[in-house]
Amino acid sequence: MAPRRTTLTQFLVEQQRSARAIKPELRLLIEVVARACKAIAVNVGKGALAGILGSNDTENVQGEVQKKLDVISNEILMEANEWGGHLAGMASEEMETFHEIPNRYPKGEYLLLFDPLDGSSNIDVNVSIGTIFSVLKSSDELGPVTEKSFLLPGTQQVAAGYAVYGPTTLLVLTVGTGVHCFTLDREMGSWVLTQSNMRIPEDTKEFAINMSNMRHWDPPVKRYIDELLLGETGPRGKNFNMRWVASMVADVHRIMTRGGVFMYPNDQRPTHRAGHLRLMYEANPMSLIVEQAGGAASTGSERILDVRPSKLHQRVSVFLGSKNEVDRIAAYHAEATK
Ligand code: F6P
Ligand code: MN
After folding, report:
1. 206-336 fold
2. What's the CA dihedral at 115, 254, 247, 292 to 10 degrees?
3. Contact 272, 317 (CB under 8 A)
4. Measured between alpha carbons, how far is 222 from 277 in angstroms, rounded to an integer?
5. Do strands 87-92 and 65-67 pair parallel, antiparallel, or not at all (unpaired)?
6. Which atom of ligand 1 lies nearest, measured to the CA of 277?
7. Which atom of ligand 1 approaches the CA of 120 most closely?
């Protein structure tokens, strides 16, 4: 007999019944998001055969040219989640303002935020890309949703996850009871639990940063990277390796699998004073996942999950992964401000 496999559906039912970690509404909401990720994976897999590579003539709110797959992925997530009855509103990297659930559909208490297709620069070159999502519980008692409803710190997330569209399609999820990885069985069309309780080692010899920005970095970041580059004859006394996929999902997934530290610091460029990555639908969900796996996530000066957002598309400086490295980076920032 084939070994018993745990599907995402079974896992979520267990989280609801035995662990009492989630309510039925949240379980169903996560199922819908996971189903939408399957649909995105199908589109990603077709690539040029479906004529969906390349860009549209449009820009998103961040002034980035939208790829066709950015727009398709956003539509898939919007359409899948709009009518389910579990949401009060949604917000996306690809939409300037939040989307309130229309009155023709029932509404729920959750807010869903997503980066529909992370790592857009990798779409046309057939390198891993993904989807990142965050679920918050709205504190507005059935009142109308406003931008303010979304502006909750990352500690308030009730679920977070990412999908990776790579050699295999993965879904990595937390509902606050550790981090669990599901692999898409493409023949069966179902998500199968393939790794429970992922843990990030506290120490590492691997780092991820876009080195081409070095001349713009602030002194604590420069100091940290200089020390890594000095290897075993430097203050760290060991050699470090570097990896940079340039899809946050892929870089974070590597760290979830074998440890490492991922950095996208703010820097001196006027466009990057606040950082590059977006707090609400990139940094916060990834930070919850990383912390749930025993890692740490910091802006350099505070825990990312404690940042009080002031706008939906706010950017933030990000250092996350193996705890001892993130703590060291935070200590270098603290020393620099003394
Ligand atoms: O979403 C932003 C993003 O594409 C991340 O996925 C990735 O980590 C980063 O930007 C890549 O930035 P850069 O092109 O500067 O290396
Ligand atoms: Mn992104």
Report:
1. D-Maltodextrin-Binding Protein; domain 2 (3.40.190)
2. 20
3. no
4. 19
5. unpaired
6. 2
7. 4
- Can you list the residues of the chain whose pLDDT is less than 50? none
Domain extents for the chain? 8-195, 206-336
At the fourth CATH level, which superfamily is domain 8-195?
Fructose-1,6-Bisphosphatase, subunit A, domain 1 (3.30.540.10)
For residues 234 and 118, give the distance between their C-alpha atoms in angstroms, rounded to a whole number: 35
What's the Cα-to-Cα distance from 77 to each of 39, 74, 132, 189, 323, rounded to whole Å? 9, 5, 11, 18, 33
Residues having CB within 6 Å of any atom of ligand 1:
118-121, 210, 246-248, 251, 264, 277, 282
List strands edge to edge, sheet with 261-264. Answer: 241-242, 206-208, 261-264, 318-321, 296-298
Which pLDDT belongs to residue 142? Answer: 60
Atom of ligand 1 nearest to the CA of 93: 1
Helix (H) or strand (E) holding 69: helix 68-82
> Does this chain's domain 8-195 share its CATH topology with 206-336?
no
Query: Hey, whose CA ends up nearest to atom 13 of ligand 1?
Result: 246
Residue having the nearest C-alpha atom to atom 3 of ligand 1:
119
Which residue spans within the chain are E strands per DSSP?
Answer: 55-59, 65-67, 87-92, 99-100, 110-118, 129-137, 157-165, 169-174, 179-185, 190-195, 206-208, 241-242, 261-264, 277-278, 296-298, 315-316, 318-321
State how far the Cα of 220 lies from the Cα of 164, in Å rounded to an integer.
31
Q: What is the pLDDT of residue 140?
A: 66
Ligand 1, atom 8, lies closest to the CA of 248
DSSP bridge pairs for 114: 92, 133
Joined tokens for residue 77: 């997530």
Question: Which pLDDT value is given to residue 139?
Answer: 81
